[in-house]
Write a structure and sequence with these properties.
The complex is a heterodimer of chains A (about 325) and B (about 260). In chain A, a hairpin with a 2-residue loop joins strand 11 and strand 12. The longest helix of chain A has 18 residues. With about 325 residues, chain A is an alpha/beta fold. In chain A, about 35% of the residues lie in helices and about 30% in strands. In chain A, helix 5 packs across helix 6. Chain A has a six-stranded mixed beta sheet with strand order 5-6-7-3-8-9, with helices on both faces. The radius of gyration of chain A is 25 Å and the shape is globular. Chain B has about 260 residues and is mostly helical. Chain B is globular. A two-stranded antiparallel sheet of chain B has the order 1-2. The chains are: A alpha/beta (about 325), B mainly alpha (about 260). At the A-B interface, helix 3, strand 5 and helix 4 of A face helix 1 and helix 4 of B.
Chain lengths: ~325, ~260
Amino acid sequence: MVQNIIDVRNLSKSFDISSKEPGLKGTIKHFFRRQTKSLKVIKDISFEIKEGEIVGFLGANGAGKTTILKMLCGLIYPSEGSILVSGYLPFRRKENFLKNITLIMGQKQQLIWDLPPIESFYLNASIYDLDKFEAKKRIKKLSEMLEIDEELFIPVRKLSLGQRMKSELLAALIHQPNILFLDEPTLGLDINAQRNLRKFLQKYNEETNATICLTSHYMKDITSLCKRVICVHEGAISYDGKLDLLLKKLSPVKEILIVCRSEEDAIKLENSGFSVKNKIKNEITIKIENNSITSSLKTILNNFDIEDLFINEPPIDEVIGKVLIKKDYDI
Amino acid sequence: MSLRKYLKVYKKFLHTSLASELEYKTNILVDLITAILSLVGSIFLLSIFFQNSGYIGGWKFEQALIIQAIYTILNGITNTWFNPNLTEIVKHIREGTLDFVLLKPIDSQFFISLKKINPSGFLEIMLGFLLLFFCIRINQINLNLSFLTLSLITISCSICILYSLWFFISTTTIWFVKTWNAIEVLRSFLYIGRFPLSSFSFSLRIFFSVFIPIAFITTIPSEVFLGLSVFWKILLEIIVATIFLINSRKFWLFALKFYSSASS
C-alpha cells in the first residue's frame, strides 16, 4: 500500500496585513498610524498526498496556493493545525527533512548571477555534502535529462529564461529530493520550453517516484502532469480529487458543429429537439451531454444529410476558470 | 553540524564569490584606489586634529594612529565580509530569496553571513596591518606572546561586536522590511571609532560604550597595544562581545518565526 508522504490536518494561517488609503493624506496617516488587520489566508484545510503522486494546486491569484506550498516546505509557520511531511514537522527544518525536499519558484532564482550554472551546482553539492565524484555524476545525469550541455558553462546572466529555468531545476535537484514543491515553474517560458520542462518532470517522477506538488496558471502543466488536483478558493479547499472527474463535472456537455448538405437540412435539425447553440446557413452547433453522445450522433447521421461534423472539447482554461471563482465542488 | 562540511562549503563560498567579483575588474580597481585614498584622507584628518594641541583625550598622534590602524583593519573586515553579506539580508527578505537559504541543510546564519566576499576589502586589511606595524615601531612597542594574545582576543571581540550589531539591525528587516537607514547610521557611527574614547565628553563616552559600543571596538584593542589597558576593560569587552554574539544568534532564530516570505 502506498503511504501518505504529506499529511495536513485543519491547517490555517493568518497574516497581519496593513492597508493604506490613497493619496498624500493616506500616506501620512499610514506612516504615523498604521492600521493592520489579521487576515486568515488559509482556512482550516486538510488533505493527504501519497508517495509518488503529482498533485496540482489550482486557484486564482491570492487564493493561498503558494502559502500552502511554503508551509509544506517549512518556510512559514502555520497559525493552527498540523502538517507532517515525510514524517517531519516542516517548520522545524531538520537537516534530514531539508535533504528530502526542494522548492522551485518560477519567479525567483538561486543561481549565482555572474557565474556559469556549474559553479552553483558544485556549491549546492557541497552544501548537501556530496563528494565531487557523486556531484559530477548527478550533474551529468540531470543535464542529459534536461538536455542542457554548453549552457552549464555560460554565465547565468547570459542565458535565456528557458535555459536558466532548466539550470535552476538542476540546482534544485542535485540532492535527489523525494518531494518537489514547484511554484509556477513554467512562468514566462515559451511553449517548447514549457513542454520540455513538463517532459522532464514526468520522467523524473517515473524514475525516482518523487512526490510533486505543483502550482501553475498554465493549464497544460496541470492537465499533462497531474491526475489529482486540489482547488483552493479564498484559502479553503473547494475541490480535492481526480482532474478528469472535475472536468466532467464542470463541462457535462460537448459542442458539436454539424455541416449539413443544405440549409433546409440545417433547419430540420434545428427543429428536431436538440439543444442548439447557434446556426449559420448550413452549419449548426448543438450541445450534447457527454453520456448520450454516441446515441445522439447515430440519430443525427441516420436522419439528416450530413457533410461533416466536428466534436469540440470546451477549452480547458475556460473550464478550470470556473473552479477559480466557485467556492465548492461536490463530486 | 560537521566542521569539515562547513569548511568545505566556506571554501566554495570563497571560490564562487571571488570568481563573481573578478568578473568586474574595473570595479575591483576602483575599490582598491578608494581604500588607499580613504586611509590617506583619514590620517590627514587625524593629523589636522592634532595640529593645535599635541594630545587629544590624553593620546598622542602616534598613539592615535594605532586606533586608526585598528579601525582600518575592522573597516576592511566590514567591507570584505559584513557589507556584501549583511546588507544582502535586507534584499533576501524583501525579495523572498531567503526561502532558498532557509531550505538548505546548513545553518542559515552561517550561509547569509559568509556567502559573499569582497576581495578589495583585503587591501584595506593589509593597509591596516602595515599601519599597525608602523605604529608598533614608532611607539616602540615590545612584542611578546601575552601582548599578541591579548591583541588577538580584543580584536576578535571587536569583530564579534561589530558583526553582532550589524546582524541585529539587518535581522529587524523581517519585521520592518527596509532597514537601510539604520545600517547607514551604524556605518556613520563606525567613523567615531577612529578617535580615542577618552576624547569624548562623559555622556558620549557612556553612549558609545553602553548603547552602541563603537568606541569600545577600537579603543580597547589600541590600549592593549600601548600597554595602557586594564584587566577589567578587556574582561568587559569579552563579556560584551559574548553577550552580543549569543543574542544576535538568538534574535535571528526568534525572528525567523515571523518570516512570512515575499509573495510570489
